[in-house]
Amino acid sequence: MSSYNIALNFEDGVTRFVECRGGEKVLDAAFRARINLPMDCSDGVCGTCKCRAESGDYDLGDEYIEDALSDDEKERGLVLTCQMVPHSDCVISVPASSTACKTGQNAFAATVSKVEQHNDAAVVLELDIESVPPVFLAGQYVNIHVPGSAAHRSYSFSSAPGESKIRFLIKRIPGGVMSTWLESAQPGNKVEMTGPLGSFYLRAVERPLLFLAGGTGLAPFLAMLEVLVRAKSQHKVHLIYGVTRELDLVCVDAIEAYAGQLPNFTFSTVVAEDASTHPRKGWVTQHIAPQCLNDGDVDVYLCGPPPMVDAVRKYFDDNGVEPHSFHYEKFTPNAAAVTA
Question: Where among 173, 197, 221 does a domain terminate?
């Protein structure tokens, strides 16, 4: 009998995956994994276990009462986990923290496979997983514990789920604790990490996509593009990749490769530096063509530094742009420690 991976996204950003057996209810699968989802009656009467199904196919049966889940709520994707029987992999948003559900982040180990420098802008860190490949949603991140220190840093996967080798695109910061370690990191070095985390991930694709990446905010989009290739997606996807200097343009060869694999994928690069000779200069917002917005019938994903995220949000507000959905993640590079 088939089984399905169910991603439980908690409101504190933690994601846990549980295996749901064929015909099994999500609440029972979670309890079997020692995750105490909110519940009271478990009979479809109280509504305490109400969550939101972000994606996937499932059946709710007819044994619950309308006071627990109305038809309107059902149309909006709300579900009762005590009645929900998946027929595919699903993503479920849980309106509670992971700690309240007596669970937490997964921890796993890996060893360094390769450290690849990209000018003075970024580093690609490739790791071999020591056990089962981590399960995550394309776009999510992990906390990597920096060897030899008590610090950890957060990085999005730039590789797709299910791979035995995982990759991260890491911004180089002079004096930064991770950047300093990467200068001497060697194949075979052990790395510990926890996760996955984050609500920035690729949802079910039902319309054109607009990806907006700033700097190493490109990382999660590389994972998303790989997932789209595997799914043989036919939807239109356009990526605008903005950086400060031309030297900051990294992994462009990987993007070009995806353009050859996805029939309706296009991309453009933008450089902000005035002295640049790049054909497209300025800010990402200056290069969002009307056709990319598809009269609002578009899902927009944005990952970049806070000023870029704020600028895009302002651009949408000022121009009356209301995409069907807008998912974004801000990241702030960790600054070097300052000692007096």
Answer: 197
In this predicted model, what pLDDT tens digit does every residue of 257-286 receive, in sequence order? 999 999 999 999 999 999 999 999 999 999
Asked whether residue 17 is assigned to any structural domain, the reply reads: yes
φ, ψ of residue 248 to 5 degrees: the values are: -80, -10
Q: What is the pLDDT of residues 83-139, one digit of tens each?
A: 999 999 999 999 999 988 988 888 889 999 999 999 899 999 999 998 888 889 999
Residue 81's nearest CA partner among 102, 67, 61, 105 is 61
CB under 8 Å to 149, separation ≥6 — which residues? 177, 181
Count of domains forming the chain: 3
Give pLDDT tens digits for 160-176.
998 889 999 999 999 99
| Rounded (10°) angle between helices 219-230 and 252-261 | 20
In this predicted model, what pLDDT tens digit does every residue of 150-163 receive, in sequence order?
999 999 999 999 88
| Nearest-angstrom CA–CA distance, 226 and 158 | 9
CATH number at residue 269: 3.40.50.80
Q: What range does the domain containing 298 cover?
A: 209-330
CB 269 within 8 Å of CB 248 = no
Residue among 65, 77, 300, 84 at smallest CA distance from 205:
300
> Two tokens at 263?
């029939």
Beta-bridged to residue 144, according to DSSP, are: 153, 193
Residues 216 and 243: their CA atoms lie apart, in Å, by 9
